[in-house]
Amino acid sequence: MDYRNIYQIARESSGFTQEKAAELLNISVESLRAYEGDRRVPPDKTVIRMIELYNTQYLAYQHLKTNAEVGKAYLPDIELKDLPTAMLRLQKEVTDFIKCKDELIDITCDGIIDNQEMPRFKEILKELDDITAAIYSLKFAKPLNDRREIR
């Protein structure tokens, strides 16, 4: 199977040829090929035009997660799922957090997190990270009647 990067997958999923996409993005076909071949990273303004043309907000997330140091360091990994599965995952993650909500209040209400509380505080923050990832997964989920390739 041939490797295809995030920009190529987004373009192909929206049904554009490289030539038509380059024309509508107001860039050369050679530039688009360089972006899709991982020889160059497209500037943010070009990525914004791609997102709008290809109608895929997920490309914004992928672009930041793979090309920006802050995205690599702080954006959670997300899994793209179908809409019902994404909704169930979000519900599960929220339920998991609710189970430890009172404990978070106890740990943080005095404004001090001591060494004994810190390990559990970090575990609870991980629950919040899981909710964030589930929210993004739901945001970018595709309805079952719109089965485009998304990676």
Automatic annotation (TrEMBL):
<dbReference type="InterPro" id="IPR010982">
    <property type="entry name" value="Lambda_DNA-bd_dom_sf"/>
</dbReference>
<feature type="domain" description="HTH cro/C1-type">
    <location>
        <begin position="10"/>
        <end position="59"/>
    </location>
</feature>
<dbReference type="Pfam" id="PF13560">
    <property type="entry name" value="HTH_31"/>
</dbReference>
<protein>
    <submittedName>
        <fullName>Helix-turn-helix domain-containing protein</fullName>
    </submittedName>
</protein>
<dbReference type="GO" id="GO:0003677">
    <property type="term" value="F:DNA binding"/>
</dbReference>
<dbReference type="InterPro" id="IPR001387">
    <property type="entry name" value="Cro/C1-type_HTH"/>
</dbReference>
